[in-house]
Amino acid sequence: MPDERELFQQIGQAAARMKPDLITLRRLLHQHPELGWLEFQTAAHVCATLEDLGYQVRTGQEAISGEDRFGVPSREVLEAAWERARSAGAPLRWLETMRGGYTGVVADLDTGKPGMLVAFRFDLDALPVHEAVDAGHLPASQGWLSRIPGAMHACGHDGHLSIGLALARLAVELAPSLAGRIRLIFQPAEEGVRGALAMTRACAGVDRLVCIHIGLGVPSGQVIGGAVGFLATREYRASFKGQAAHAGLEPEVGRSALLAAAQAALALHTLAQYAGHEVRVNVGILRGGVATSIVPPEAELLYRIRADDNSVIEALDQRAHAAVLGAAATYGCHVELEIIGRAGSEDSHPELAALAADLAQSVPGVKSTSHHHPFGASEDATHLMQQVHRQGGQATYIMLGADLAAGHHNERFDFDENSLAIGLELLGKLLVRLLLDSQFKR
Amino acid sequence: MPDERELFQQIGQAAARMKPDLITLRRLLHQHPELGWLEFQTAAHVCATLEDLGYQVRTGQEAISGEDRFGVPSREVLEAAWERARSAGAPLRWLETMRGGYTGVVADLDTGKPGMLVAFRFDLDALPVHEAVDAGHLPASQGWLSRIPGAMHACGHDGHLSIGLALARLAVELAPSLAGRIRLIFQPAEEGVRGALAMTRACAGVDRLVCIHIGLGVPSGQVIGGAVGFLATREYRASFKGQAAHAGLEPEVGRSALLAAAQAALALHTLAQYAGHEVRVNVGILRGGVATSIVPPEAELLYRIRADDNSVIEALDQRAHAAVLGAAATYGCHVELEIIGRAGSEDSHPELAALAADLAQSVPGVKSTSHHHPFGASEDATHLMQQVHRQGGQATYIMLGADLAAGHHNERFDFDENSLAIGLELLGKLLVRLLLDSQFKR
Amino acid sequence: MPDERELFQQIGQAAARMKPDLITLRRLLHQHPELGWLEFQTAAHVCATLEDLGYQVRTGQEAISGEDRFGVPSREVLEAAWERARSAGAPLRWLETMRGGYTGVVADLDTGKPGMLVAFRFDLDALPVHEAVDAGHLPASQGWLSRIPGAMHACGHDGHLSIGLALARLAVELAPSLAGRIRLIFQPAEEGVRGALAMTRACAGVDRLVCIHIGLGVPSGQVIGGAVGFLATREYRASFKGQAAHAGLEPEVGRSALLAAAQAALALHTLAQYAGHEVRVNVGILRGGVATSIVPPEAELLYRIRADDNSVIEALDQRAHAAVLGAAATYGCHVELEIIGRAGSEDSHPELAALAADLAQSVPGVKSTSHHHPFGASEDATHLMQQVHRQGGQATYIMLGADLAAGHHNERFDFDENSLAIGLELLGKLLVRLLLDSQFKR
Amino acid sequence: MPDERELFQQIGQAAARMKPDLITLRRLLHQHPELGWLEFQTAAHVCATLEDLGYQVRTGQEAISGEDRFGVPSREVLEAAWERARSAGAPLRWLETMRGGYTGVVADLDTGKPGMLVAFRFDLDALPVHEAVDAGHLPASQGWLSRIPGAMHACGHDGHLSIGLALARLAVELAPSLAGRIRLIFQPAEEGVRGALAMTRACAGVDRLVCIHIGLGVPSGQVIGGAVGFLATREYRASFKGQAAHAGLEPEVGRSALLAAAQAALALHTLAQYAGHEVRVNVGILRGGVATSIVPPEAELLYRIRADDNSVIEALDQRAHAAVLGAAATYGCHVELEIIGRAGSEDSHPELAALAADLAQSVPGVKSTSHHHPFGASEDATHLMQQVHRQGGQATYIMLGADLAAGHHNERFDFDENSLAIGLELLGKLLVRLLLDSQFKR
């Protein structure tokens, strides 16, 4: 049986060989983006693929804890997406299980030998972005644009999925040399930090958890072993109720929920100054009113706050509440606040992060590595990492460098696809280092 | 042949007899509200009915001037509504002609004898209001609620249509005693003052134009012969373009179109003070943003201004433009303004208004009448009235008193249905007075 | 003894003769404007003049009810103004009595014969306006500009005072032919509707009250017998308290009272739409903050609302309160509201108004008259008029036409001084008509 | 002659001996705060004291470059403050020189032996803060409150001055053992970063520059050798011009500069989010309007932006400009922007900072030291430090730990006065280390 050095060689060759497939699959996925909790087609494809490879697959309510989901779309939207997936030919067996937005997947591969449980986490969802269509945007000029109007993989999750499925294949090849268990977690609704909490259960018993994200400002050729400084985040829906009235005949009777929401939006954006801390406020969506002749009786405002510290976000949260309530009162309206997303701040484990960074140095194409780097944004992977750390395990969040055509969430987002093979090789080597059967160790 | 007195008796009896049918038809129409330019099912029903009665019917591009339409919905919305009408069984022959939002109807009845051309105008469209469903709302407790979610006849146009179709029937009965021509105009998209301009052609050659509206603050038993003081109105869509960015990773790159629109909304509402004039500003709709993690790249704001004077609205319009452009600049955004509705101020003709008021005194149920009354809101019927006055004709806009359960455009709007028969009788008598064959006059 | 016709001739001659003096005195007063409650020099001059003419003069707390004053300046400001008046040589005897802002004057002339008590009311105060100094402004080019920086008679009260003092002189001449009593009321702090309520006592027992105002949009040569449609008004000071903090070191500790006030300003200005009513909202003053490096701990906002109806202003007042409180809460601030001015809506008495208009027709220079005209603004004379009407008397508010160089309260305000003699003659004739000794009547 | 060890002993003894005097002087200064460019009494006292000690003293236009001053008060304010200083008995000889706001002082002491030029910089000005007067505030309970209403040493400059004057005395004692020149720079108008640029000339030829500040969040017993991370800052006055009008009679004619400024304030505060950077925006002062009955024709807004990076502040500055211009346009107003303060970001020199930190370890009362610490706010000392660094010299900004009763700029600000003696001893030792005559070095 091969030792680690030989296995590393084998992994390197596999990554080089699979590189075109990684790119092809990523581009295919790019054409079929699905928003959070609606990843029916994608998740069903993942289930079918992993089952074929020999994994034990769980999805639906076996994988997702219904009451821990945030920001689930309406029943109508869920059904429409489900129907689309069905019409598109997604395997009904898996679809049935996921109906209603239970789109997470947990897949286990057991080597049959005692050892650690090592998990890898990937994210399934896309963003509500209209993809750019001009020739300057590669997916447009090369013909692999999103086929779903108003949805786009504008954060690289298509790349993560491509790596994840390739890793699944590679792990099967490596399994005979390993001891312990491999778990692949495919999480829905990462955008809006809405999905991870509902998959915390998937981390029960996990000894090592490896998450990975492409880009994030890290250039091609650089790998960060473990992100730190995740921004804690909370996300709210504020529903304003005013009073409708004919805007011409009796404007004085109306109470414009739209004006209350508009004022709340401005007020919320004044709250982002905290000395020594990264703080963010974003009113991401505002929708209000029904017709120009009616004083708007209702408005809805979705906002998200972030901070690099749990006590700072707590203080910010209270000020944001006051701002929303005050704005409603200003215009004689009522408002209800509903939390629709939440993640904390959890650093990567220094030991596992260092290991990832060190292994990355041996991967072709990697020019520099670093143990740690501030993430500067939010991720609900922190829920999973926290769970693993609580159990005494180690979790890391690898930042996989990739030059970007435009920033994350932008309509022209695209990444250097050379990173895909690098990511695959790095995860493969981590797997071997963590689970190599002791009899092969020298 | 009967003289006017006998014809008036006949009309009174017909109105009394048709009263239950008027109410039944109104309630049926109430259950099938269609928004502006989407009145496929309603208009097709009108066409079929009038053709059966012997009217010469024009619809589609024969009735509607395509380039003069304001605020036409998107192709997708037009198609979906059209399909719904088709599925509901609306006669395909008429539907085909209206496809794409040409939902106006012009129907002529010729007595064969020379005389004036007298036109009556009714409006077809409903409002984007979710109808109240509790027992306190009569349509709910009696089972004739809107069956179309998010649409409601909340301004009484269902009542107007019911009167209009009954008048069509009555006119056929009266025709042998009359000389000249009768024209019935069924106009789409009155809400948002979007439809009348496209039907101005229907008023070419019209000598007398009679419009009618239920409610409007006039109590049951009262009739106003001719409204004056219509508020001139203009309606705009402001489309703000900012710059999307990941709200966590690089908020400084983003330019929030949502904030620009929010500020524009507040600023617009500060413009409504004009000494000695009725002025209105209403930001009726604001929609912006795509996700809470994205700095909103786009926002759309629909607003409507009104004034009781054409020069005041001109001045107001300029200030509103400045406010919108300034707000966009404030946040580093761009904005485009599109006019989507427009109506002027045109008083009822005093002679025709007086005639209508005088005739109303003979209608059972009418307790008081008045020649004139300020309207206090906007109506695109003013386009048609203006056209008739330009030709030397006379136009009036009758306000038909009816107690209301709640204000116009409110989710609990409902009116006293006794007004329907009053309206029918009044219009019938007006018709006779205007077109009675001279040989029967004494 | 002369009859009315002869007296009218005498008055006409006196007015013509006094015309240059009226203008001279007006220009003198124009150079010495004093703000509300600070009219020490002006009021002392009035007292001395009237006493010399034989009037019984009351001022200070004999004329002013201390607790009914609104918007009295701070003790420092009062003292500084008092000192300035003293330095300027105003008679100390009267000054002493007025100290602390008791600047009203009530002067009685008793004919010794029984009859009605007829009162005339004039206003003493100027405005905080920096007068224009360019040659296009008559007071500048002719050398009679305000000598007090930041204060200006920009509403014509200098003209009213000139008429009032001339009328005092004329009344002494006429007295032997009259029966009853004449009362001249000189009121402080009309601007901001702050002074009249404190002089209500001066109207006890008054049978006829005549108020007069120059300009107001009425052109030269026109006289309105009695204004109606005064806008009821309320005026508030909102004092916001936030939390100071170093804006660089710990911005998160601060709570900006300035932002709260700014938002309140915007929100207040959105409240001015009332169908069928004239409504006004004006945030007239906002002052907040101490330094650019400090989060503003305090801000003060002064606003004024008006409406042509007492119930509308009540409703508006409540909405304005909510707006101010809501804006404070939005930014974590506190706010206190203090009422600093208030007047109601009280129409001129039709009988007295008609009398004034009719008499005006005989005054040279008057080309047209009207019994009534809407005032369209606010006046605290309404407090006095209301008091007289409650007693069964009659009060009117004459609008004395005068072409203006620029609108009231503008830095270029100036009026056609020909109106002064017209005003004097009209008031003199009114006096005679109301108090002519019956033995001289024919 | 003594060696360094002996001189250090001597300095330690002097600091202990002078401790009560340091406190007494600080409290005296605390009672006579003067705002920026108005420090006539304070600066004259400094001049007289230093001249008495044998320093060569320059002030007035010899010390201050007139055209490089920011935010100089109006001539009236300058004169009033100058008069107050004169009335208070400040020596006229120095006062005359400073008239018009030339309140900086540069004082040199030449050892007569060749060597470096070592400068120390202190700041003279106080803040526009109303000092707290309750017993919980030490200056109140102990009777040394500010005697100038509305002005307060709320940032510790009184302590800096006390140290500076004691250092002047100590330097004279030490001079015989030193070689080179000592320069004491007393700078006006540090608050608002308005004064340093005008004193850049005082740094010509300076080899070492030492600045010092008390408190800043560093606790008693800790000393930071050199601050880094100064926030670059820019400070503006935005003057809005609208159009006055009578708010009741013709509100539509007015253009409220107050509303424009209010909106600008809100918009500016939305600009503070920059990933990875400390950014601040503060609208510190807003003043607008003249009376509640007048649409505000003018408003003034003072704001300050800061960033920890020169390119970030440049970008922020441009967005702020756009926000101000956009807000003015929104309300039909004009606006002019005037820069009234400016400072860049300049780190302490690591070598000199390390030296200061190391020497601090030998000072009694110092428990911990650190070479560097982020400042987190702005300081115009950076102008002077930059000048020295450009010349190849070294500059540092010592943060002298002191527990605070309340934050800087707060009305309850006070600091642990034990820090004064520590500061004196540290500066004395630095002086010796930098200028010790080489013949005494061992």
Short description:
The structure is a homotetramer of 442-residue chains. With 442 residues, the first copy, chain A, is of the alpha/beta class. Chain A has helices at 4-30, 40-53, 75-87, 92-98, 138-142, 157-174, 257-268, 310-330, 350-360, 381-390, 418-435, and strands at residues 56-59, 105-110, 117-123, 181-187, 208-214, 222-228, 232-241, 279-288, 298-307, 334-343, 368-374, 394-400, 404-406, 414-415.
- Helix proportion of residues of chain A, in percent? 25-40%
Globally, the shape of chain A reads globular
Q: Assembly type of the shown chains?
A: homotetramer
Q: Could you state the order of secondary-structure elements of chain A as H and E?
A: HHEHHEEHHEEEEHEEHEHEHEEEH
Approximately what portion of the residues of chain A adopt beta-strand conformation? 15-25%
Structural class call of chain A reads alpha/beta
Largest interface: A-B, 59 and 59 residues
Note poorly predicted spans of chain A. Answer: none
What is the mean predicted local confidence, pLDDT of chain A? Answer: 94
Major beta sheet summary of chain A = 8 strands, mixed
What is the alpha-carbon Rg of chain A in Å? 23 Å
Order of strands, widest sheet of chain A: 1-2-4-3-5-12-6-11
End-to-end Cα distance of chain A, whole Å, is 12 Å
Please count the helical segments of chain A.
Answer: 11
Q: Total number of β-strand segments of chain A?
A: 14
